[in-house]
Write a structure and sequence with these properties.
two-stranded antiparallel sheet; mainly alpha; ABC transporter involved in vitamin B12 uptake, BtuC; about 400 residues; about 80% helix; globular
Length: about 400
C-alpha cells in the first residue's frame, strides 16, 4: 500500500506540473477540429511571427512576478523604444543596428528609472509602473510628434520578418529547420537525463524509467512535428531563434544562478530573504532594469513586424504578458513560476486568439474568453495553495 501511495503521489505531482502543457495540447486539438486552417504550416508560422513580442515580454514579466511585483508599463515602453528606433533609422537615416542599440539603451534607462523608485525609494511597483505607463506613452507621442513613421525596410524589417532557410537544401521543405530542431530535441533529452541522474545521486524521488522515456519521446515528437510545419512553410523565423536564445538564457539565469535564487527568495518570503543576507534592493533594481531591457527587445521586434512605429503601439501588451505568466503557473503572491511556464501560457493566449479569429469570433467574445481563462488559472493557483495548507 505504501508503494502504491508513493506512485500516486508522484503521478499527482507530475500532473500538477504538466497540467498547463496538457491544457495547451488540448486547446490545439480543439481548434484543429474546429478549423481546417488552424494547423497548416502557414498559420503556425504566422502565430510565431504575430505573438513573439508577447512571449518576450512574458519572460521579463515572469521574473517581475516571481519577485513579488507587477509591471504595467511594458506596453508603453514597447511603443517608446519602437518610436526611438524609427526616429533614428527612418528620420535620421542611420543604419539598422544604430536603431536597435538606441532602443536597447532607452529600455535600460527606463528600467533603471523605475528600478530606482521601486528598490531604493520603496514605492510599490504597481504605482511606479502605472506612472511609467503614462509617462512612456506621453514620451512616445512627443518622440513621434503624434504621427506614425514607416517604413523601416532593409535589415531592420528582417528582424521580425526574415527567415533562415535553404542552407542545407531540401525539396519542398527546409532541411536546416529540421536539423536545428533535432539538435534542440536531443539537447532537451540530455538535460533531462542529467537532471534525473542528479536526483538519483541525492536520493530524490523520480518518475519510473518507462514514464521518463515516454515523456522524452512525446516532447521530441511534438518538437519535430512543429519543425516539420515550419520547414514546409518559409523555414526558421529569425524571431524564433531570438526567442529560443532568450528562453534558454533566462531559464539558466532563473534556475541555476545566485541572482535567480535570490529573486525566488524575495518573492517567496521577503523577511526571510533579508535575514539570509540577500541584497533585496539591488535584486529588485536589476529585476526592473531587466524588464526594461526585454521591453526594448519586444519593441524592436514589434516595430520591425509592423514595419513602422505608431503612437498607439503596444496598447494592452502588459495585460497579455501578465496573463501569460499567471496562466503559465506564476503565483499571485510571488516566489513561484518558471520561464517555460510563461512561454506555454503565452502560447495558450496566442493559440486561443488565432483560433477564434479563424473561426470568425468577434473581438468582444475573444476578450471575454481570455478573461475567463485568466480567472480560472488564478483560481486554480489559489485552490492549490489552500489544499497544500490543509494537508500540512
Amino acid at each position: 500500500m505504501t508503494g502504491i501511495a508513493n506512485v500516486w503521489e508522484i503521478a499527482t505531482r507530475n500532473m500538477r506540473q504538466s497540467g498547463i502543457a496538457v491544457a495547451f495540447v488540448a486547446i490545439l486539438v480543439l481548434f484543429s477540429v474546429l478549423s481546417d486552417n488552424f494547423l497548416t504550416p502557414g498559420n503556425i508560422t504566422n502565430i510565431v511571427l504575430q505573438y513573439s513580442y508577447i512571449l518576450i515580454l512574458a519572460i521579463g514579466m515572469m521574473m517581475v512576478i516571481i519577485g513579488g511585483h507587477i509591471d504595467l508599463s511594458v506596453g508603453s515602453l514597447v511603443a517608446l523604444t519602437g518610436a526611438v528606433a524609427a526616429v533614428v533609422v527612418i528620420k535620421g537615416g542611420m543604419p539598422w543596428w544604430a536603431g536597435v542599440l538606441t532602443a536597447l539603451l532607452v529600455g535600460l534607462l527606463a528600467g533603471a528609472w523605475q528600478g530606482f523608485w521601486v528598490a531604493y525609494v520603496g514605492i510599490p511597483a504597481f504605482i511606479v509602473t502605472l506612472a511609467g505607463m503614462l509617462l512612456f506613452r506621453g514620451l512616445t507621442w512627443v518622440v513621434l510628434d503624434s504621427v506614425s513613421l514607416s517604413p523601416f525596410g532593409g535589415n531592420y524589417y528582417l528582424i521580425a520578418n526574415g527567415f533562415q532557410n535553404g542552407l542545407f537544401g531540401g525539396r519542398g521543405f527546409d532541411v536546416f529547420t529540421l536539423v536545428i530542431f533535432a539538435i534542440g530535441a536531443i539537447g532537451y533529452a540530455v538535460m533531462q537525463w542529467r537532471s534525473r541522474m542528479a536526483k538519483l545521486h541525492y536520493q530524490q524521488v523520480v518518475e519510473a524509467l518507462p514514464l521518463f522515456v515516454a515523456k522524452i519521446v512525446v516532447v521530441a515528437a511534438i518538437v519535430m512535428w512543429f519543425a516539420w510545419q515550419l520547414a514546409q512553410s518559409r523555414g526558421l523565423p529569425n524571431v524564433l531563434i531570438l526567442l529560443a536564445v532568450l528562453v534558454i538564457g533566462y531559464g539558466i539565469l532563473t534556475q541555476k544562478s545566485v541572482f535567480g535564487r535570490h529573486v525566488y527568495a524575495i518573492g517567496g518570503n521577503l523577511h526571510a530573504a533579508q535575514l539570509s543576507g540577500v541584497k533585496v534592493k539591488k535584486v529588485n533594481f536589476w529585476v526592473m532594469v531587466n524588464m526594461g531591457l526585454l521591453s526594448a527587445v519586444a519593441g524592436i521586434v514589434y516595430s520591425a513586424r509592423m514595419n513602422g512605429a505608431q503612437p498607439g503601439a503596444g496598447n494592452m501588451f502588459e495585460l497579455d504578458a501578465i496573463a501569460a505568466c499567471f496562466i503559465g503557473g506564476a503565483a499571485v503572491t510571488g516566489g513561484v513560476g518558471r520561464i517555460t511556464g510563461a512561454m506555454i501560457g503565452g502560447l495558450i493566449m496566442a493559440v486561443m486568439t488565432n483560433g477564434m479569429q479563424l473561426m470568425g469570433i468577434g473581438q468582444p467574445v475573444q476578450q471575454c474568453v481570455k478573461g475567463l481563462v485568466l480567472l480560472l488559472a488564478v483560481a486554480f493557483d489559489v485552490y492549490n495553495k489552500k489544499r497544500a495548507g490543509a494537508s500540512r
